[in-house]
């Protein structure tokens, strides 16, 4: 379907959240990760909007959703922002798709508002503290923060990007870049929190929330891909290896979609079978 969304703003907790939506049917809410902007989901929204109402947004302090004074990241506040967008659209619940740290915020949303989750799909949420080598990854994150503080954004971003496997594979289109100020907000206010934050996955399991996790094949053994294995162990949930890299849903959308539908079908069958 042609991409021609309706754009709107909802005010929540001192932030004008810019969101856009398209389609008819059950709601799918797409949550951006550390790059902060919703444009990365435009291709998959266009592809799905013949069957679903699709919505995404720029997260607070990112792209169009600015505030007067930036603050440290609060995953619970991010979850409340998602709730505000779902509510203003007139829905009581939604399918949730979160990628990268957006997957962490998706888990947080399910923790805080379980009654509003239809199904949840987390795509490579970087819950590094669950990994066997969590100590090493944590120390690497502290090193990157020191590089940012002493050598600046460009150097820190270059070192961080060495872990983003698959983006330079031959023939793979480039992703849409974030707004120019998004990386600085990420390094100033988000990565210090995300480095050690994991929502209570055991509570999600206890609540019997319908959850599936995905890891991207082009990411190989990147820490954020392997984190999905640990999540699946805790949640006892379905997991899929899907096409693409960390943003494969954006640049290999056609290849990604059958796996998206497969996961939704698996989750629906699991729920109806008890």
UniProtKB/TrEMBL annotation:
An example Gene Ontology molecular-function term: hydrolase activity
Annotated ranges, domain AB hydrolase-1: 26-133
Iron-sulfur in keyword set: no
UniProt-listed SUPFAM superfamilies: alpha/beta-Hydrolases
Taxonomy, superkingdom: Eukaryota
One Pfam entry name: Abhydrolase_1
Keyword annotations from UniProtKB, A to Z: Hydrolase
A GO CC annotation given for this chain: membrane
InterPro entries linked to this entry: AB_hydrolase_1 (IPR000073), AB_hydrolase_fold (IPR029058), AB_hydrolase_sf (IPR050266)
Protein name: AB hydrolase-1 domain-containing protein
Species of provenance: Venustampulla echinocandica
């Amino acid at each position: 379907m042609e991409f021609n969304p309706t754009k709107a703003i909802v005010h929540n907790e001192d932030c004008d959240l810019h969101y856009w939506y398209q389609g008819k049917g059950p709601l799918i809410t797409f949550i951006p990760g550390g790059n902060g902007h919703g444009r990365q989901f435009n291709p998959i929204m266009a592809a799905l909007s013949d069957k679903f109402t699709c919505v995404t947004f720029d997260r607070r302090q990112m792209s169009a959703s600015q505030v007067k004074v930036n603050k440290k990241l609060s995953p619970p506040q991010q979850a409340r922002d998602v709730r505000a967008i779902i509510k203003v659209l007139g829905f009581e619940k939604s399918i949730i798709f979160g990628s990268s740290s957006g997957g962490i915020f998706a888990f947080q949303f399910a923790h805080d508002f379980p009654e509003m989750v239809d199904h949840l799909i987390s795509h490579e949420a970087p819950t590094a503290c669950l990994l066997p080598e969590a100590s090493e990854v944590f120390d690497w994150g502290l090193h990157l923060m020191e590089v940012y503080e002493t050598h600046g954004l460009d150097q820190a971003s270059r070192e961080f990007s060495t872990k983003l496997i698959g983006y330079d594979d031959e023939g793979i289109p480039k992703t849409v870049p974030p707004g120019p100020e998004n990386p600085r907000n990420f390094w100033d206010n988000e990565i210090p929190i995300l480095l050690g934050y994991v929502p209570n996955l055991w509570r999600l399991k206890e609540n019997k929330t319908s959850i599936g996790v995905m890891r991207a094949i082009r990411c190989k053994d990147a820490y954020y891909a392997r984190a999905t294995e640990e999540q699946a162990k805790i949640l006892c949930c379905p997991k899929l290896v899907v096409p693409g890299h960390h943003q494969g849903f954006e640049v290999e959308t056609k290849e990604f979609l059958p796996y998206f539908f497969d996961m939704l079908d698996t989750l629906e069958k699991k729920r109806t079978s008890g």
